[in-house]
Structure formats: C-alpha cells, structure tokens
Amino acid sequence: MSTRSQPRRRALLVWFLVLSSLAVLVSPRPASAQKKPEPARVAFYGTGPELKPTREAVKRLLPDGVELDQGRFTRELQKGGALGPEFDKSPRLGKRVQKAIERSKVKAAVLARTYRQKKDRMAHVLVFVPGSAKPEVDATVKLGKKNTDSEWVELNDAVFPVLSKLEPEPEPEPKPAKGKAKAKAEAKPPKKGAAKKPEPEPEPEPEPEAEEEEAEEKPEKKPEPRAPDEDEPAKAGGGFDRHAALASVGLALSFGGRDLSYNDARSPQLRDYSTGNLLMLGARLELFPLAASAGFVKNVGLAGKFDWALPFKSKGVGGQEFDGNYSAFEIGLRYRIPIRPSALGVGIGFGKETFSFSGEGEAYNDVAGVDYSYLRFGLDGRFPVGPVALLAGAGYRLVLSGGSIADHFTDTSMVGVDARLGAALPLGERFEGFLALRYARYGYSMSPRPTDTFVAGGAVAQFFALELGGNLGF
Questions:
Q1: Burial group, residue 183, by CB count within 10 angstroms (0-12, 13-18, 19+)
Q2: Range of the domain at 438
C-alpha cells in the first residue's frame, strides 16, 4: 500500500509545484516604485558687481518645489560664444536664450546685468520663458543695500509675477495593470462599499480636456516666433553687437590706383599721371575701453587704420622707371551713436597719406609725389538690409600740407574729401566679411606767377581702391 501510494504522492507534489509556479506568474505584481521626477528648475545668468546678491534674491523668490539651475543653462548659453559685458543689448540674445532653455529644460531664465550708478546699485533684468524670444520682463530696477526681501522690492515686483506661476513637475500616475491582474485589481473594491467603483472612470476625462486646452493654446503661440524677425535687421548688422563691443579688429586686401590731372597747365614739364597697379594690405582697429560703463563715455573710443602698398613701378616721359611706394595711416577718436538696429558713428582724427618715388631723372616732374597731412572729420554707418548690412561713410579732410606738388606752386590751397560704400555679411557670432569701394579726392587751387617754373590753374588728385576683408569683434 505504501509502495503504490509513493508514486501518487510524488505526482501530487509535482502538480502542486507546477500550479504554484503558474499562480506566481499570473498573480498581479505590485507596481514598481515610480522614479521621482526632477524638480522644476529656473536658470539665472548675470554679470556685474552685484551678481551674487542678485542671484540669492532671485533664489528666494522661487516657489516651493522649484530649484535654481546649477549651471547647465549657462553652459548651453555660452556655446554660441562668450557674451559681452553688456549682453542685454545684443540683438541675438533672445534666440540664444531660447536655444539654451530648450536644451537645459528649464521653466524660465532670469538674466541680470548689474552695475553701479553713482551710489545706487542697479540692474537691467530680463526674464524669458519657453517658446518666445521676447522677454516676459524687461525692466531696470534699483537693488537693495542689504540682502533682505524688504530691500529688494523693485526686483521682487518685476520678477515674482512670472516666477510665481511656475509649478513643480507633477508626479507621474502609476500605470494601470494589464490582463488578469487588471481584472483582479478591479475586483478588489475599497471596503467602504462598491458604490465607489465607478469613481475612477470619470477621472481620465479631464485629461483629454487638458490636452484640448493645450492644443487651443498652441495656435496662440504661433505668432511669437515673429519676434526674432523683428531683430533680424540687427543680426544682419554683423556677427557681433557693434553697440556694445569692446573692440574690433579688421584686415583687408585692396586693389587700387591713383590719378592726377592738371587744370590749365602752361608748363611743358607738367603732365597728368595715372596708375592702377596698386596691391595693398590694410588693418583697422577700434577700441572702446569704457564699454562696460554707463552713460556717454561707454561709446567713446579710439580708432586707427593703416594701409601699405607693395612696391610698384611708374614710367616717366622719357621712359625711365621710378620705384613707387604708398602708405597711409589715421588715428583719432570715434563716438558710436546708439541707434538700433543701425550702427552710426562720428569721428575726428589725424591722418597722413604718402606717394613717394625714387630713381634717376626728374621724378617730381614726371610722376608727382605727394605727402598729405590732414585732420579728418567723418561720419559712418551700417544699415541692415535682409541678410547683409550696407556700409556707408564720408569724410572731410582739412589738408595741412601736400608735399612736393604744393611746394612747386605759389599760393597753393588744398581740400580733401573721401567716401566709402560697401556691404558686410555675418559669418559667425563674432566675425563678418565685407566688400567695399573707397574713394578719396584732393583739390588744388593755385595762383602762380608768370615767372614761376611751374604754372597751372589747379589740379585734382584721386585715389580709389576695392577692398575685401573681415572684422573680428570682442
């Protein structure tokens, strides 16, 4: 009896184990613990002497469950290049901030440029939210002297209305069970009664309504991308903000020539002169050392330029050749006029322009060397047109001396003018290429005596060049 029942017991044990395993497999598993969502974050970026207290003041305004970003936004913002001391005046700022917001996934970004105005601590504050290149807040506020809320009323009033609307990330709802587990979960009503079973059914209904509300709100945000279009002309003004740049350096390669013609020339040794084989290298520099300051002085700077031509050849009347050299430089003061999106400037400076020749023979009679010294009063501007910017400038030259030509005539007076016209194309955040035509003209008025060696009623000297180059801003 025991011997026959032993296989049965083993079979029952096997079936028991199999059924137990199946029961474990089909039994509903407890919902796994949901990963705690990351807290909502607000970014802060600032410059100036009051950076730290301003950051702490913004931090105090954050609602519960919202934290201050720990640098990810700043890293994303600076991927497009370091921002200048007056970053808040950059026409590209809105677009760069939006990219940084999307990449760092922050709910808002507060930017502040702090500075001192006499004894007051001031800040220009901008607050951006996702989806718009225009700031929700654009205000200049007076900062407190002590790091308490009562001392920072103006900043609080400007920033808090936006930050108070932010809410922490909602915790994700547990996923509903599937299959038999779902049926068993539904089969276990709360002890208070089965009347509460249908309560979960209406809960999902608000979700599509919320989605419909969001869908209705999205079309309202479609016009917002037009904001960058309003700034587009400013972007075309160059690869960097010329209203706030600390310095700019330019290099150019030029092809040009010179022309000299006499009016009513009565001396046989006087002849017109023309050459068009000048290959020149040029450099430009603008420096605004007080660009980070406030007021008038931040737009006052130094400007200089230098041009040099490779040695060239010129022939005289008898066929003899002369070695020619050309160089020019200017240095002076420049004031940039803050008119956006265009960039205007006025300047005054001292300049010198020299054409010199060496060789055997009467070089002065044949090829007419000059050595101009002058004071220049100029006006220049750049005007955005689509993806490029038109360049225009003009100047008046008060000639102080004219070199050999002026020395050979009696009672000679001179006046000079110049002009420049071209276009610039941004090639990066801080670089632009340009193509421009330069022109300068000197007019001579002469009152010679009949007994003079050189007799002429006047003369006109002209210089022209086509230049191709680039500017780098800082």
A1: exposed
A2: 237-473
Tell me how far apart the alpha carbons of residues 62 and 160 are, in angstroms, rounded to a whole number: 8
| Residue range 355-409, pLDDT digits in tens | 888 776 554 444 578 899 999 999 999 999 988 999 999 999 999 998 877 777 8
DSSP class per residue in 377-407:
EEEEEEEEETTEEEEEEEEEEEEEE--HHHH
Q: Residue 388 is which amino acid? A: V
CATH number at residue 98: 3.40.50
What is the 8-class DSSP label of residue 1?
Answer: -
In what side-by-side order are the strands of the sheet with 108-117? 66-68, 40-47, 108-117, 120-128, 137-142
Q: Give the integer Cα–Cα distance in Å for 264 and 66.
A: 85
Last residue of a domain, one of 148, 163, 178: 163
Structure tokens at 173: 């709802």
Residue 332, classified by CB atoms within 10 Å of its CB into exposed (0-12), middle (13-18) or buried (19+), is middle
Structural domain includes residue 406: yes
**pTM more than 0.85:** no
Query: Are the C-beta atoms of residues 336 and 349 closer than 8 Å to each other?
Result: no
